[in-house]
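Dear support,

We are seeing what looks like truncated structure output for some complexes. This example has two components. We would appreciate it if you could run it in full and send us the complete token output so we can diff it against ours.
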Amino acid sequence: MKKEEKLDYWRQNIRLIRWLLIVWAAVSLGAGILFVKPLNAISIGNMPFGFWMAQQGSIFVFVVLIYIYAKRMDKIDHDHHADE
Amino acid sequence: MTVEAWTYLFVTITFMLYLYIGWKARVKESSGFYVAGQGVPAIANGAATAADWMSAASFISMAGAISVLGYDGSIYLMGWTGGYVLLALLLAPYLRKFGQYTVPDFVGTRYYSDTARIIAVICALFVSITYVAGQMRGVGIVFSKFLNVEITHGVIIGMVIVGFFAVLGGMKGITWTQVAQYGVLIVAFLIPSIALSLKLTGNPIPQLGMVTSDIIPRLNEIQVALGFTEYTQPFAHKSMLDVLFITIALMVGTAGLPHVIVRFYTVPNVRAARYSAFWALLFIAILYTTAPALATFARYNLIESLHGKTLDEIHTMDWAAKWEATGLLEFNDKNGNGKLELTPDTITSEIIIDKDIIVLSTPEVAQMSPWVVALVAAGGLAAALSTAAGLLLVISSSIAHDIYFRLINPNADEKRRVMVGRFMVIAAVFVAGYFGVHPPGFVAQVVAFAFGLAASSFFPVILLGIFDRRANREGAIAGMIVGLSFTVFYIVGTKANLLFGGFGVEEAWFGNWCFGISAEGIGTVGMMLNFAVALIVSRMTPPPPQEVMDILDDLRMPDHVGPALILDESTE
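Here is the complete output from our reference environment:
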């Protein structure tokens, strides 16, 4: 891989990480803690939504985020291989 | 068969299994001993990481703590899972690419400094020894509760078992035993949870039962009627800021714990490291999303079974009498009205429930068969032993690899390195056993230390080491020292009465002066200080040498970009 390609690869990696971490913070620190009170006004089944996000929802999202990262990185790896 | 007979049977079968796997996985080379020859498939490493991570505390105490704290218990749920996102995106793939044996290896090489390496070794040792003492204690408690064995004997049996497969197989033996232990602990956690969910909500899936049934509104009503706040009420026990800072400290601390990080050195390549983090969190999430449901069910069930009953009625329930005998459940009709009443104030409350019995007593409270009770005991032991094994290896490799091989005798041959490694595992087992038998009175308190230290030392230096090209030796050392000293100073100061109670210190030296943040959350502030100091000092001192820049460039590229990619398609 050439130098520019390496830089490009790294930039794509960073962009992906940035988006995933924004979602990570939004569901846990945001929905689960900072905005838990207003979100509790909404219900999911018989549970307040903010409480559900803090104890269940955020964990499901975490698992999905890591899966998306692994899958997207496969594609980024593959693209850069194809560019060679 | 009685509960005791079943427990002996399950514990014996599972221990035989661990010993057998340990024997099969014995190794001779140092790469096998320290990083399992880097040949562990992603999914197996995921299961091993999950068992490594979920300790006696996750298995036995966490659901109980949540059931007492209600919403505020979310700090553990989000904190101990959210860290894996940081680990998967920011640390694991690059550390795997770097490909040495330990975390201090990375710190020492990336910051071209033996001083940085030694600081890292000291942190790794402190964090791991703190943690392992709690695990050995957990082993002792399970033995004494379920098998009526003395705690000391329980600890010794645990030491022998862990020592056996760790000494013979090193990381390889530990890994494959942990895979088996994950299986045992997850089955042991799920069976009683499913049964209780079915009983209380009619839905076999606890996560769904909690949402679809009316158990949460009913529990909220009962809590308010008894004078507690609603179960789902946020910030009933801790302020919002404190909850936020504790959650971040636990997340970042998790991502910085050496025994977790080192698991990602054992997979074949960078791609496997990414998928392995996914499998690990998936396996962890199975327990971590069940635990809050179990916490809700158990709290509801316990209040319903105990509150307002007379002492005679309670003594007709076998499990209540049995747990009362252990001292974890107390009944005392303090106001003499003939009825036992649960109240928020522990001084007037006539029923006192220790958080540790929530999981352990669930099968009996829900009147399940004796074999389920025995299974839970085997699960608790699996959780404690698997975590202890991972920690012992970190303690051993910190000394045998980072100190002996890297600093004292770099010319040591393979045979000698493995021998020193085995010897250090034995030494570590004895240290852990000693603390298990003679627990320092403050074990629960020092857990804050483990996460605080990992958050304020390892996480920032590793992260900057990968993502900030300009980060240098001076910055990393200054950052670690400032982050660590602030965190240690604050935790020791706010917990002085608990840490030094034996030396006549009766009061904490100071309160939570830093915006009311408690000792558990102060690691977040320590981490911020570490980042700030490291970034500033790095810019004021010479940049890292060219060799380090080259290592860094290499670190950022996955090893399989290029022809190897095609071969790797099947490793998922």
